Amino acid sequence: MNKVVLITGAGRGIGASTAALAASQGYAVAVNYLGNYQAASDVVSAIVAAGGKALAIQADVSRKEEVARLFDQASEQLGPVTHLVNNAGVPGKIGRVEDLDPAVLLKTFEVNMFAAVYCSQQFIKRCSTKYGAAGGAIVNVSSMASRTGSPNELVHYAAAKAALETFNYGLASEVATEGIRVNAVSCGLFETDIHAEAGDASRLQRYATRMPMQRAGRPEEAAQAIMWLLSPAASYITGATLPVAGGR
Length: 248
Ligand code: NAP
Prior knowledge:
The protein is α/β, with parallel strands linked by helices and 248 residues long. Helix content is 46%, strand content 16%. It has one domain (4-240): Rossmann fold (3-Layer(aba) Sandwich).
């Protein structure tokens, strides 16, 4: 079977590493991005140069209608999507709850949580045995913040990721007999742009030494866990959330 994986937010960070690893494992890769065309294009070029198949597709996955177009474009140009990684995420801004802007709260839930629902809806309609398809697998990219709560920093983000993990578990049960496995990785601290986007690039250094392994993770280390959960090697695993967090 032709393996086609759609990875949201795959132009940078964990998504970009996952795209590269997936391509090296024989997947055709739909590299979704929001605004950074150059980064997504670089990911695609590297895959194609190595003999793989990939396509950059712009879409705001927090918009339901854009998600439908994203899946249509990926399927038309790469073949039917067989695997999905709900990776796109935004942290919002570091701060305390009483100062949280409602617009930031909404966007944080839309991108980290609603987008996973919209993408999963498209995926189920195209891949479930209930609709005559062959099945597939989904991985949701969550955060250890769902357990720590991220007080004084990103409580809104932590809450959105906790919702994502409950969605992960519920959806997994819902489609368990329909050939679709649904799992999550709960990432600790990774070397990506997300910390600067949250408003404090130095956060990475500050927290790294507090981890049991006393270092941040590299994006390719998250990618390995994501691709393993997508693979047949994880055939009896669904509804799980795997910590990828250096011992946290
Ligand atoms: P990152 O380097 O900041 O990259 C985020 C990616 O998401 C970018 O490719 C961005 O697209 C894309 N994106 C943002 N909003 C989008 C939208 N509405 N539609 C489509 N794409 C969108 O982030 P990262 O650190 O790799 O994070 C990846 C995932 O891991 C996220 O879910 C994050 O919450 C989770 N995570 C990260 C860490 C960490 O320490 N890094 C820890 C725990 C969990 P553009 O490139 O076009 O801007």
